[in-house]
Amino acid sequence: MNILWSSEARRALRAIRKFIAQDSEFYAARMVARIIERVERAATSPAQGHPVHEYPEEPLKEVHESPYRIIYGFSEDEFRVVTIVHFKQPLEKKRLTRHQRPGDRV
């Protein structure tokens, strides 16, 4: 399965690294690696993620790499990381809808 990262997801990952690196470059790199590994694991069985509870009408799922939620969509041959949000952050719909494609399924 091909893994694609939206510009929003890449921006979020850079922001996570920058924020954590204020205290520790080591832990910043470690968290980014954990998120990437979690995405790779989720891509092997994308249907097993959880529906995004704030927006059940959206064809998206989520997995967690504490303290972050990884929001994604998928089709037969693509796994698209839409965004990454901290558990304490509200998930704004505008971060979701511009990155979906026709044919996404949950």
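Above is the first protein from milestone M3; the second protein from the same milestone is given next.
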Amino acid sequence: MPPPASARLRPFAVGLTALGLGALAYLSLRPSAFLSEVGWIPRWLSHWADHHGVLRNAVAFLALGLFVFASVGRRPRHGLALAAFAIVIEVPQIWLPQRVFDGRDIGASFGGLAVAWLLVWVARKLGRLRGA
């Protein structure tokens, strides 16, 4: 019997997670914080992000958390790994001349992860109640 669909899609989910982590690391560690200078980000999104400094961290980690917790799993180690990643990509900004380390960015990232954790938990509870 073939493995369930979730098992077959797991390598794809892990690959997309790695891509998302790489993109966040790149955007956090590049010399300029302005996303409007990044050609592959849609203009409307870069404009919004450039005008919502700390909030953009919450939104980015909310999206990343939703994907990871829904596809790879909502285990404590996944949440802790993403929280550690938020710290790891913020701290090097201390040494980047045009960037600024800001603890609020880490807090916003943690907040986005917490909301993602809660939303996936609620979605799974509702899915079970409806017979999914």
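Note on the second protein: The helical segments are 5-29, 43-50, 53-71, 76-90, 103-129.
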